[in-house]
Structure formats: structure tokens, C-alpha cells
Specification:
With about 375 residues, the protein is of the alpha/beta class. It has a domain of about 250 residues: Alpha-Beta Complex (Spore Coat Polysaccharide Biosynthesis Protein SpsA, Chain A), CATH 3.90.550.10. The strands form three sheets. A five-stranded mixed sheet has the order 3-2-1-4-7. It has a four-stranded antiparallel sheet with strand order 5-9-11-10. Strand 2, helix 4 and strand 3 form a beta-alpha-beta unit. Helix 5 packs parallel to helix 7. The longest helix is centred in the N-terminal third of the chain and has 33 residues. It is globular and about 85 Å long. The relative contact order is 0.13. About 15% of the residues have low confidence. The structure holds 2-acetamido-2-deoxy-beta-D-glucopyranose (4 copies). The site of one 2-acetamido-2-deoxy-beta-D-glucopyranose has 4 residues, from loops. Keywords: Signal.
Amino acid sequence: MSKRFRRKAFLFRVCFLVLAGQVLLLCHRWAEEEQQEHYSVEILPRIHFTPAESNLSLKSSSALITEPSFSSGSQRRDELSDTLWPADTFRNRTLVVVLGSLRCGEAAWKSLYRNVLDVNNADLAVITQAKPKSDNSRHTVSLLQRAKYVWEVPSFTDWADALDLMAGGRAWRERVPEYYTDHESGILGGALNYSGSGAIIFWYRWFLTERIRELNWKSRYDRFVITRSDHFYLCPHDINELDPYFMWVPQGQTWGGVTDRYLVVNASNVLEALNILPPLLKNPSRYSNYLQRKVNTEHFLAMRWREQSLFPDKRNKFPRTMFVCMAREDALTSWKPLGIEVFPGVFTKYHIEFSTSQQACRMSRQERLDFIARKSNLLPT
Ligand SMILES: *[C@@H]1O[C@H](CO)[C@@H](O)[C@H](O)[C@H]1NC(C)=O
Ligand SMILES: *[C@@H]1O[C@H](CO)[C@@H](O)[C@H](O)[C@H]1NC(C)=O
Ligand SMILES: *[C@@H]1O[C@H](CO)[C@@H](O)[C@H](O)[C@H]1NC(C)=O
Ligand SMILES: *[C@@H]1O[C@H](CO)[C@@H](O)[C@H](O)[C@H]1NC(C)=O
């Protein structure tokens, strides 16, 4: 009898431990997904230019407010084609824009071509940092060969130099720190001595808005997909399934605001959706609330969209089909260690993204459409 009881007690303990383990795992995932206060920030790898390699002496000269010479070789190809090619050459009405450092590598980029560009007949633009002349790897990077437009921006060591271009001068350097009393606030991270990466990721958005204006892309393209180079797309992402009335972001990674890693936006809203930092540099007192405490980029992005009536009504979510990935060498420059190797040489960064994309990719097309329709309030929940 007592032997049976002991066995029962043992089994009970095993069950309890297994359950507790599951609960802990769930909590961990939930925390990774939603926790806002203890977010970590990502510093993009920086390449330090010596003056000999780069003639952008932004630092040494306060008079240098003019735009530095951005390389735009493949852009010229396109300008030419505008006049030389028949009008119906430009059937592609979607532009996919990859912003930031080139990471994760060929496997991820092939998934972009197959599951995003080809599915949507999209053109590709890449805005990334220049590499030292000695680095020849550029020529073998398929992403840059595939892109119709490429801009290589200077590799700023202090992104305050980049913000000078955005603000049209250096006056903000006096004005903003007066209000920026919590240096842990991530909004201008990467500039001056602020932690985080907000200055970097939002500066790229500003740079893109300038190109959209300059090249009149609002009339050439109907829709824009704003993404980063280290997304791995597990299955086809057909943006025609997403109502253009809304701006679409994938589910998850909200960090108390709205994810800043992927956006599908109609031409009518693209400039507003990308206009995040310029008003802060002009009028920091208006945003002092956000500069006096630890605020992450997701939170600030949601606030700026709210200010422009894009959030929450114009923001919608689709089932996530992509995850941020890392290659082995990315671990050298990342605050986050390599996750799990899910394909040869492809590691997860936030494992939860991989699980949710796997789930979404197993849905039938109809199930995905139903999900999206519910999100658009077209169907009852
Ligand atoms: C800046 O660099 C470009 C390309 O490397 C070169 O053509 C140009 O002459 C340089 N300008 C100056 C002022 O050194
Ligand atoms: C249109 O998009 C497809 C798929 O990305 C691409 O292969 C093709 O070259 C593009 N066409 C033009 C004219 O850019
Ligand atoms: C950051 O820089 C400002 C002036 O630019 C200075 O007043 C402040 O003490 C610095 N903070 C830290 C934490 O280094
Ligand atoms: C999308 O943008 C185009 C171009 O600006 C506009 O004509 C169209 O009405 C917009 N569609 C929606 C649903 O907002």
C-alpha cells in the first residue's frame, strides 16, 4: 500500500515539475514578447572610417551641414530608364525597402526574394552603411546586386552627425539635451552619449522620406514595405491580402508600443508613417515626457503614429511569417547571443518569432485571410 502511495507521490511530483516547467517557459516567452521596461537595445555594428577612406569630415567642420556625397550608382540606372524605357516597363507597383546594416546573410536574402519580392512583383531598394574601400565583400552581396536602388550612407561613429543633416543644423544639440534628462531613453540612442539605437533606426526612415520626395515615389509605387536585412521569411507574404486602407505590422514584438521592424504601408500614408524624429529635434519640449524617462523606440513610434492619427485605427496586424535571424559572425557585434540554429548557419534572435512564424506558415491561405479579415473588423471576432 505504502509502496503504491510512494509511487503515486513520485508521479505527482514529476507531473508537478513538468507543469511548472511549462508555466515558466510560457512566462519567459510572454516576457520576451511583451515586457517593456526591461527591453534591451541593439547597437548596429559600426565601421570606423579614417579621414583617408572617407572625405566626409562632418565632425571636424561645423559648417558642413550640406548633404555628404551618398553613393547612388544603381539609382542613376533607374533615372536613365525613366526616359529611355517604354512606359509600361514599370509594372511593379510595390517597393520593398531594406534599411540598415547587412546582416544574417544570403539565406535570409534569398527568402526575401522568394517570399516577398517575387510574390508581390516588388522592386527592391537598399539603404545601408558604406563599408571601407578595403572590404571587397560588397561585390558578392546578392542583396546589392538584386536591388534596383542602393544608397550607401556614411558609417557615422556618432549618429549626432547624421541628425545634423536631418535637423538642418546643429542647434538641436543645445536644445534637446536640456530635456533629455534620462540617458537610458532609447529615442536618440546612438547619438551623443545616449544609449539605445533610436537615432539610427529613425534616421534611416527620415533618409528614406527624402528619397521618396526627391524621386516622386509616391506616384511610382502604390505600396511600400519597410524592413531590415536580417529577416528570414518562412513562407510567401502576399501583401495583396492586406487592405491598403491600413498600415500592417506583423503580430508580436510590440514591446509596449508598435513593432519597428516591418511595415506595409500605402503610398498615401508612407511619409507620415516614416516621419518620427524630425519634430522632436525641432520642438523637444513637446516631447519632454518621453525624454525624461526610459522609453523604447516601439513606444515612441506608437506615440508619433498616434499624433498623426495613424494609431491605433490605421494600424493592423497580420500573422507573423518572418523572424529576425543571425549568422555566426553577427554574434560579434550584437548584444544578443546566437539563438537556436534553425537552418544551416541561420540562428534565431528572438525564438518566439520563429515559433509564431512557423505556426502562421502552417495556416492555410483561407485561415490567414480569416485572421486578417477579423483584424480589419470585417468579420465578427
Ligand atoms: C570624395 O570622394 C569621392 C569618391 O571617393 C571622390 O570622387 C571625390 O573627389 C572626393 N572629394 C574630395 C573633396 O576629396
Ligand atoms: C519586377 O519585380 C520582379 C520580382 O521582384 C523582378 O524580378 C523584376 O525584375 C521587376 N521588374 C522590373 C521592371 O523592375
Ligand atoms: C552626456 O553628455 C552631456 C553633455 O553632452 C553631459 O552633460 C552628461 O553628463 C553626459 N552624461 C553621461 C552619462 O556621460
Ligand atoms: C493608397 O494610395 C494611393 C496613392 O496615394 C491613393 O490613391 C489611394 O486612395 C490609397 N488607398 C487607400 C485605401 O488609402
